[in-house]
Amino acid sequence: MDRAEYDSVTAGESGPRDPHIRDIVRTGGIAFFNRVCGAGLGFLAGILAARLLGAEALGLYSLGITCMTVGSIVGRIGLDNVLVRRVAAEIGADDWSGALAARRTVMVLALAGSAAISAILAGLAAPIAVIVFDKPGLATPLLVCALAILPFSALSLLVASLNAAGRAAPASLVQAALPQLGIVAGLGLATVAGARWDAADMSALHLAAILASTVAAWLIWRRVAAGKPAAPGGAAIRPMLAAGLPLLWVTLVGVATVTVDILMLGLWREAETLGHYAAAAHTAGLMALILVATNGVVAPKIAHLHAQGRMTQMSAVVRGASFLMAAAMLPVLLLFLGAPGLVMRLYGPGFEAGAAALAILAIGQFVNVACGPVGYMLIMTGHERLLRNITLMAGIMNVVLNSLLIPDFGAVGAAIATAASMAALNLVATIHVYRKFSINMIALFDPGAARAALSGGIVGQASAGAAPVDAKQDGHGP
Fold this sequence. Notes:
Elements (H helix, E strand, L loop, with lengths): L2 H5 L11 H35 L1 H22 L2 H14 L3 H28 L1 H8 L6 H9 L1 H16 L3 H26 L5 H27 L11 H32 L2 H15 L3 H19 L3 H28 L1 H5 L10 H16 L3 H6 L4 H54 L9 H16 L8 H4 L4
Helix pairs in contact: 2-3, 2-9, 2-12, 2-13, 2-14, 2-19, 3-5, 3-7, 3-8, 3-10, 3-11, 3-12, 4-5, 4-8, 4-11, 4-13, 5-7, 5-8, 6-7, 7-10, 8-9, 8-10, 9-10, 11-18, 12-16, 12-18, 13-14, 14-16, 14-19, 16-18
């Protein structure tokens, strides 16, 4: 695809304002607002938790939440991404019956797997805390986090369902904003009451917030699916598992890229150092929330446009999204590089020890954001096995680098290893997307991507009344 063909998107097949990019800005704008609220609440929750718990208890809590996240991913066996791809494609073909059948099968399989992992981790919580991590105080927080695996998986699957149906705004509300709102409310009450909390108390609050958000997500999904034709039974199980298992490795290794640092620091360093690093990682991770919010809108569109063979428009959508995300996060990167100690001091005395880790992690996260929805470009176009191999390479790289650097450099070594492997994963995936589709995902300094984003998004949003988006095509219809 040459430059002229790409530039024609803003004045060609969709007219001067591309409706898909406009929809990303409109729907993604609401989702991004929800994510910003969630990020702000999460940042506040991190500060309140750090000041209430102290670095040591915060480190134990972070270790428990990391185990919960990994356990949920294993339990879902990669099926949440299969859900998005299958359901979005079926809805795009106006086949709600097929979409609901596929979703039903995914929910049963993924929740059964999550329940099994939850039971195993709960039964082994004490031995893992004492024998593996040499931290007896981790036993109770880990048990509570094990119990949170099932509702956390249910929430993730409901969010995937909403995203596949084009409801990115409510999906981001229940995934990002509501849990953090519940946590902030609980921490605020505890702070006002002068309570003395430990990691187990914080884990219990997290579990309660997840349960409340899961109920809210279920109620929203019931409203979305109300009145839609539903065939009895579900979709074939074997094709689902065949598609999900490669994605499990992709997701698991991808998560390992950003969690192995916490786990290895938990193995080799004291809980206080882990707490400092966890605060830095949490702060840097705020940069990736725009990617998560935008992916919720972009992923179904990639699947839809690719299924229709509309490659030029797909290119404009993903490059416009990449430009918008990178441009939005550039000022945040500069803040984290210019004043990391000032940011970390918000967590309380002593947390400025994580300033160097914050600056390093921010670079890795910016590369992650600047490459845009590169992972979903491969997943939604049927190249999940390629992404699996790339993430496996990055995961091995991360484990090796953490093993080499943490013993001598502690939190800074973990930050270097994590940022380097994260950047490698995204850059290698970007190269493969370019080879397969001639699409350069890094679009921050590309005038063509900026024109596609601005003319198709901001200008189009202003004139949305004159050129409405096709509700049925984009999944926003009743």
